[in-house]
Structures are given as C-alpha cells and as structure tokens.
Amino acid sequence: MLKKISISASNFVLYRKHYCFQARSLSSMIKKQKKSDMKSGNAGTGIASAVDGIVLRSLKDHYLEASKMAPPPKMNPPAPFEILKGALEHRYPGTAAVLRRTYNDGNESIDISVMRLANFISEVDEEEEEINQLFLHVDVTKKGCNDATHFLCALYPDAIGIHSVRFGPRSLTTNNIHDNHSRSFQELDQKLQDAFHMYIEERGINESLFPFLQAWLYVKDHRNLMRWFKSVGSFVNQSK
Q: What residues form the membrane-spanning segments (predicted)?
C-alpha cells in the first residue's frame, strides 16, 4: 500500500519542478538513443521502440510518485456557498463554475469559477506563487434576465481586488470575458470603484473564499496530473 504524503504548496511545487527536470532528462536520453541507433543503422524502429519504453517507464515512475500525494483535508466553502456538482470533472480551471449561492431572497444567483492568477497575467511567476494568488470570474445573474454582470477579480489570502467589470450574456466564460466590451476597474472613478467593492462584499465575495478555493485547485491539479499520466500512457501503448 502506498504511503500517502500530504499535498501542500511546497511539496506540489517541488514535485512540479522535479517533473520538469525529469522531462529534460528524458529528452537527453532520447537524443543519446537516436545517435546510437544512427550508428548501428537502426534509425527507425530502434528509436521508436526505445522512446516508447523510456516514456512508459518514466510515466509509471511519475504516476507512482504522484499517487503518494494525499489531497488536502476536506474543506467546505463559506456558507451559504455550495460546491457545484461535477466541478472537478472539468479539465481546465476557469471554464466552469465551482461555487454557487443565491442572494436577495433567491432573486440573484452568483457563480464563481477560479484559476491561478498566473494563468491570466503572464507577469506572475507560476512556480513562485504556490497558489497564493487566485483569479476569480464572478457571474451575478437575476431571475428573468438573460444577461449578467461579470467581475474578474484577483483573490489573495488577505484581500480581493477587482480587475474588470462587464455586463453581457450569461454564457461568457473566463476565456472570452476580457475583451473590448469589458471595463478595466482602473478606468472607473473612485466612487464607482468603492460601490462595486461594496457590491461584491455584500454577496460574500471576499478573502474568506481563499482557503477553500486554494485547496480545491490543489485537488484539481492532482486529478488532472493523474489523468494526464493515464492518457499519455494509453496512447503510447496503443502506438506500439
């Protein structure tokens, strides 16, 4: 039975760095095998067979290593937010809502999707941040209205900041909300900025969401990593 290692910011980032190092080592091994096969005249099947074997062994080793990582302790989101069923099954963070709540006697519905801030702002160093900066897409809809108010926010352990605001179709996702129809928060005057901050605060959009969403992303990353190992391994096996 595998010994479980608690997954945390530090060991997950270290594992990711270790994986990148192993990928470079794998590339070096393939180049050496290619040179060897070229000398022996087996430049075709020899390389393919050797590469498949190297890839499968490396995938197995990394899969077993990742399997030792236990997910963070189970956490519940702050009330009255609820986790949406199937949220973990979406492969890419930010493409589907994670949390939902109602507001104003059920006349409003508020959905939250999340990803790393580094996925949206290229200047952020993803390896250094250790999921201490999150990016939220907050979708506020009202009964009988086909449109919604969309907020893009940066969430930290002790603060939240609004990046931009847009009013548009409910179907907008994090990937297509940020265009010339949205308004950068810095373009708005101070009174309107303060009003929007109060607006989301009254609906529970604040730093209290951070611990749950951080843990949720660790679980999501781990699931995606295990799925990736299985998918690539199956593909390589089928090609043999």
A: none
**Residue 155 near residue 175 (C-beta atoms within 8 A):** no
pLDDT tens digits, one per residue of 46-79:
556 666 777 777 777 776 776 777 766 778 999 9
- How far apart (Å, rounded) are the C-alpha atoms in residues 52 and 135? 38
Q: What is the distance between the alpha carbons of residues 229 and 214, in angstroms, rounded to a whole number? A: 23
**Spatial CB neighbours of 54, under 8 Å, sequence gap ≥ 6:** 26, 29, 30, 33
Task: Name residue 88's beta-bridge partners.
Answer: none
Mean pLDDT for all residues in the chain: 75
User: Hey, what CATH class is 82-217 in?
Assistant: alpha beta
Give the separation between CA 188 and CA 172, rounded to whole angstroms: 22
Distance CA 87, CA 224 (A): 13
Quick one: pLDDT at residue 148? 92
List the chain domain ranges. Answer: 5-70, 82-217
Phi, psi angles (nearest 5°) of residue 48: -60, -45
Is the torsion defined by CA of 39, 42, 45, 50 positive or negative? negative
Q: pTM for this one?
A: 0.70
Q: How confident is the model at residue 181 (pLDDT cuts 50, 70, 90)?
A: low
As a whole number of angstroms, the distance between CA 37 and CA 35 comes to: 6
pLDDT band at 6 (very low <50, low <70, confident <90, very high): very low
